[in-house]
Amino acid sequence: MGNIQKMLDNAITGKFNDISLNESKMSIIENSMWRYLCDCQMSYQKLLSEKEQIQAQISDISHQTGTHIANIILYSQLLEEQQELYVNNSETAECLSIIRKEAEELDFLTGFLEKLSRMETGIINVTLKKQKIMPVLSSITNQFQKQALKQQIQFSIEMSDESAVFDLKWTKEAVANVVDNALKYTRAGGSVSISVKAYSFFVCIRVSDTGTGIPEREQANIFTRFYRSEAASEKAGLGIGLYIAREVIKAQGGYIKVDSVENKGSCFSMYLLKDKVS
Predict the structure, then answer these.
(1) pLDDT in tens, 14-36
(2) Would you list the DSSP string of 144-192?
(3) How far, in Å, CA of 126 to CA of 169, rounded?
(4) Is the pTM above the cut of 0.85?
(5) Do the Cβ atoms of 113 and 61 come closer than 8 Å?
(6) Residue 121 CB coordination number (10 Å)
(7) How many Å is the Cα radius of gyration of the chain?
(8) Is there a smaller number of Cβ atoms within 10 Å at the N or the C end of the chain?
(9) Could you give the C-alpha distances from 126 to 69, 122, 233, 278, in angstroms and in order?
(10) Taking the domain 129-273, which CATH number applies?
(11) Checking DSSP bridges between strand 265-273 and strand 255-261, what pairing results, if any?
């Protein structure tokens, strides 16, 4: 018992070390306790690392937000100064374009902060209800139609009369994150499509694209928070969209999976329960 007490005391004071043990000189209980404390120590270190990463992300976003706000104020002032002198000229149009882009960046950053806050506080409280899937698809159409048109991507959604058990608000966000990811990695002239298929116990919302695809070695990591592949370095994003999508679908009793071929495209399948589990 002396060894167990010593290990516990060291763990409480943060001095626990992962040391090599001679199992022949230690009881089975002591050895099990040692392994348990090793696992706890590793989990604690992982949490500390993630916390530091989150703090760095928030600090970086705060800095970027300040820059965008300063630019919006500057170009707004320029427009005000030119308002009486110029009407519909190229300089005014350029200022308006810059203001719009800066506002879009701010919208992205503040949206990320909101998602990050939800993720850290565990606020994914779903209210499950059996309902039609079409309102989710209609919302996605309204949200992304203009973006797809601007990127010259064919965007299509298959009409569906299927019903499933899900939370409307959170499912919209989950599907939106997947669609946003698809548009981000699909080139002009490509396509993104959404379809629905019913199975015995699940209803599947499938998002398919003709984008860059995901290397097989990376597919196991894409739902990990903050994960960004090497190919994503030039794209806007902070690596939590697919993570949140997975957490939302999982919280509703479903699951998400991906099938992808590099340089050909990807297909994300989100499975929702067809009926409530009694």
Answers:
(1) 555 555 555 555 566 666 666 77
(2) HHHHHHHTT-EEEE-----EEEE-HHHHHHHHHHHHHHHHHT--TT-EE
(3) 9
(4) no
(5) yes
(6) 8
(7) 25
(8) C
(9) 34, 11, 33, 17
(10) 3.30.565.10
(11) antiparallel
